[in-house]
Here is the input.
Amino acid sequence: MVALVRNSAAEMWEHSAELGAALAEQIAADVPELAGDPVLVEDLANSVVANLREATGRLAQGDLNPGTAVPEAALAYARRLAERGIPASALLRAYRIGQARAQEAVGANLAASGADPSIVIAASQALSAVAFDYVDGISERVVAAHEDARARWEAVGAARGSGLVAALLDDHAERAQLAARELGHRLDQDHVGLVLWGGDRPHPTLTRRPGALVVPVDSTTVWAWLPGDDVRLQELGSPDGAPEGWVAVGDVAAGPDGFVESHRQARRLQGLVAAMRPETRPRVARAGAARLPLLLARDPAAAAQWVHQTLGALALDDVTHARFRDTLRAFLEAGGSYATAADRLGVHRNTVLYRVRRAEEILGRSLREDRLEVETALRVAYWLGRSVLTTP
Here is the structure.
C-alpha cells in the first residue's frame, strides 16, 4: 500500500503544474470572488501548485504525515485576498474545493494503477486522511495570514483609498463626484488609466507627477490615472521609471466617462499580458498597440482558426517556431530592414536573414503575397499566445 501511495504521489508531484492549473480553474469557476482579476487568478494557480508540491513531495518519499508547512505562495495568496477585501470564507471554500477535486484525481489515478482492489482502497483511504489533515492544518495558518494582512492594510488607510476609487468607477455620478472631491482628483479633464502589477513598490515616477491619482489595490498592484495631456508617458519605459513588474496603459479619454473607460482598457490589457508567458510579456503595454488582439480575445476560437489559416505550420507552439515568429515580426515591424530587426533582437544580421527565409519556407509563400495579413497574424499570435497557437 505504501509503495502505491508513493508512486501516486510522485506522479502527481511530477505533473503538479498541469494539475494545479486545472484545479485552479475549477476553484475559480466555483468561487466567483476569486475569478475575473488576472493577478488573483495567477496567484491562485501558484498557491494550488505550491500546496500540491508540498504535500505530494513528502508523500513521494514515504512520509504519510506531511505536516502543515505552509508554502510562501499560499501565504502570499491569502495576504493578497485580504488586501483586495475578499473574505477568508472564500479562501477556505477554495481549499475545500481543491481538496475534493484533488482527491477525485487521486482516486482516478489509483484506480488506473492496476493494483489489487484492496490495496487501492487502503491507499485511497490513507491519502484521503493525509489530505484532510493537511488542509485542516494549513487552513488555520492561511486564515491567520489573511487576518494580519487585512489589519495592516486598513491601518495604513489603503483600504479606504481603494473604496473611494471603487466609488469613482461606479455608474452613479453623484457618488463618483463625492469620491473625486475627497481624493482631490479632477474628473473634468482627459485621463490615461494605468495598471501596474508584479513589483514591490508603487511606481516612483507616477507618485511625483502633479495631477496623478495613484491608488494601491494590494501590496504589489497599483491603479493610476495621469492627466491626458501628460506627454511624459514614454518615461514608463525608461530604466529609471519602469517598475519591477508590468504596466498596462489605456488610451487617453475625456471626462468622468473617460476616467472609467481608460481604466477598463488598462484592465483588459492587463488580462492579456498576464496570460502571456512571463519571459515574453512586454514591460509596458499600450492599448493602442494591442487593439486588434484585445478585440479578437473575445472569441479565441475564431482567432485561433484565422491565425492557423494565415500562418500554417508557423503557428506551432514550440521554441523553434516561436523564434521564427519573433524574428519575422521584428523584421516586418522594422519595415523590412534586416539591420534594424537584428539590432532590436540583439542578433547578427545574417541570423535575421536566415530566420526570415526559413519562416517563408514554413509559410510556403513569399511575404510579398500577403505581407499585411501575415504581420497582423504574427502580432495576434504574440499577444494571445497559446490560446491561438497550434499544439505540436
In short: The CA atoms of residues 64 and 129 lie 9 Å apart. The longest strand covers residues 246-254. The two ends are 38 Å apart (CA to CA).
